[in-house]
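Quick one, tokens below:
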């Protein structure tokens, strides 16, 4: 196996991993957990800001 063939196989492996990750990320079963994780950031920040404002007064 020469260097060009090895590079081709590695490129195909990386492409396959990319496609697998994209399919996993956009699957409908993961949507609810991703939405919950995205919204949890705002809920925690808001609670921290309210607590900071109450203690600073």
């Amino acid at each position: 196996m020469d260097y060009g063939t090895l590079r081709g196989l590695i490129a195909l492996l990386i492409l396959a991993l990319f496609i697998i990750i994209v399919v996993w990320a956009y699957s409908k079963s993961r949507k609810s957990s991703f939405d919950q994780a995205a919204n949890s950031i705002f809920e925690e920040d808001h609670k921290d800001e309210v607590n900071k404002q109450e203690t600073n007064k």
